[in-house]
Specification:
The chain has 95 residues and is an all-alpha fold. Helices cover 68% and strands 0% of the residues. The chain is built from five helices and no strands. The longest helix is centred in the middle third of the chain and has 25 residues. The chain is elongated and about 70 Å long. This is Anti-sigma-K factor RskA N-terminal domain-containing protein. InterPro entries: Anti_sigma_zinc_sf, RskA_N. Keywords: Transcription, Transcription regulation. It holds the Pfam family RskA_N.
Length: 95
Amino acid sequence: MTDTQPCRADLLDLAYPYAMDAVAEIECRRIENRLAGADSATAAAFVAAVHGIRETLAALSAAEAVDPPPTLESKILRAIDDSCPPRVPRVRPVC
């Protein structure tokens, strides 16, 4: 095993959390920097893994999607109105 093989495996393992946006922004940049310095085969494998993972997640999301109840929007708007304190107009002092 060469020194690049463990790095390649580590980078490819990071494709899963990267594809699911499960890494912090700074970690995302680190992964992208490592990817930029990786050999073309590793980079292609990473991109393919990310694409496959995202396609699978999209298919699963579409399969489980349901329409929200028709009253949901009005309930949310009412809850927002109820949680906001009433606005008190500011009165400017007369000088």
